[in-house]
Amino acid sequence: MNLSNTSQLGFSDTKKHYKILDGLRGVAAIIVVAFHILETFTGGDHSKQIINHGYLAVDFFFVLSGFVIGYAYDDRWQKMTLGGFFKRRLIRLHPMIIIGMIIGAVTFYFQDSSFFPVISETPVWKMLLVMVIGFTLIPVGHSMDIRGWTEMHPLNGPAWSLFFEYVGNILYALFIRKLSNKILALLVFIAGAALIHLAVTSPHGDVIGGWSIDATQLRIGFTRLLYPFLAGLLLSRIVKPGQYKNAFFWSSLILVVVFSIPRVGNPEQVWQNGLYDSLSIIFVFPLVVYIGASGETKGKMASKISRFLGDISYPLYIIHYPFIYMYMAWIAKNQEFIDTAPLGKTTMILISITVLLVTVTLAYALFKLYDVPVRKWLTNKLMKK
């Protein structure tokens, strides 16, 4: 998931910076947090989820990734080496990956509950080993599952999408950047067909998955990566942004509606929801990126909001889930209180809001006090000619 913006890519030039796309990342990241908070109460039944399609934010991020990578780098390769490209991407993405793993480790034993049956059996040395491996973003197999969910990054589950983001970056640098638009368009078509097939044949009728090291989950992960990443890249090459008024409002509204639509179809026709998922990714998300790239933020307040949302987007996404783990543990341990006490549900709502506010605040603090200074230091150390 590429959450970078074009003003922080290590180049000094006058390329237009798409501020609205920054803001859209932030909108999607906040929806992801709300989606994960509400997911706690579904009991695995997707039809009960209020923000039902919030999981599609990952696919939207991949479209943005392809678009931003193509826009920022396609015309740089005459003066940029592979090593330079990979250094820039590591500097942009990896500091927050490390801090996300540390937060996951610090909060790990506070997450012990019936939701996570393996935590109580996990020795500290094994947890620390998983953390160190997590620093590299190398996935762990089931033998290193310290939570019981078979995640490739059990200290910070959403890091699976960053693993595929790295895969997309590597493929782009080694092969995809060299492809003509015709060949790229053909690959986009094939990847889109594969995405539709995955979604409509899924036993659950959606594209959810990609976070485990097994054949089924890896297929989901690669399929979710390839179409949106390639489509975003193609979009950056062939479409010239237009001029739309209120582009941030309309593109944000489209995202909120797509993520919030209730489950489509019924348990006997789950393919209908799969079709909704795939068509949203194939048609709606590239349209949203196009609209976002075709507008301007006018006024100080609009610019500040867009900048704030862009600043918190990546930190929020990569640090929020350890707090969701703790939130789920609290729910599991206090379910009777929530169900029976006079203020049980009110307390639950207040804690839910607190989780959202704390993660947003921490994300902004980490952006200012950790992410930006560390990236600046690494750029000075590693990118000097």
From TrEMBL:
Keyword Nucleotide-binding: no
Keywords: Acyltransferase, Membrane, Transferase, Transmembrane, Transmembrane helix
Transmembrane segments: 20-38, 50-73, 93-111, 123-140, 160-176, 183-200, 220-239, 246-262, 274-293, 314-332, 347-367
GO MF term list: acyltransferase activity
Any coiled-coil regions, as ranges: none
Key word Manganese present: no
Domain of life the protein comes from: Bacteria
InterPro entries per UniProt: Acyl_transf_3_dom (IPR002656), Acyltransferase_3 (IPR050879)
Annotated ranges, domain Acyltransferase: 20-366
Matching PANTHER family: ACETYLTRANSFERASE, PUTATIVE (AFU_ORTHOLOGUE AFUA_4G08520)-RELATED
Protein name: Acyltransferase
Phylogenetic classification of the source organism: Bacteria, Pseudomonadati, Bacteroidota, Bacteroidia, Marinilabiliales
